[in-house]
Amino acid sequence: MLKSGLATVAGTKVIGFRLTAIVLLLAGNCLIIPAMADAQCTSEPTTVLKGTVFLEAPGEPAYVQGANVIVQGEFLHLSAVTDRDGRFRYSNMEPGTYTVEATFFGLQAEQKISVEPGTEVQVVLQLKLPDPTISANP
Question: How many domains does the chain have?
């Protein structure tokens, strides 16, 4: 009878030790994992490209809804459509040199830009008829 009582006490201590170890491990993970995530997710400067597309109209510019805006770089090709106020926006762009082109029913505008880390680049594109002296086919 004495042996079974000692086995129960010893078994309870082992279970208590395991339970304590599990609680400590869980508590440690709750402290360590967020610290690691924060270290890995440090925010780099956000680079934003935004702009407007418009037609020249008497009095004031007419902003163009639905214009196709394409941004091309050496390793990047992005496309967007302007909103009802003629605006477009690209976020988290890599630094570099890009060509921004807007087209709308045969009208076009193009601008070359340079993007630096952590900057906000503003582009204003005025749509015009393409230059007839420039030919796509040589």
Answer: 2
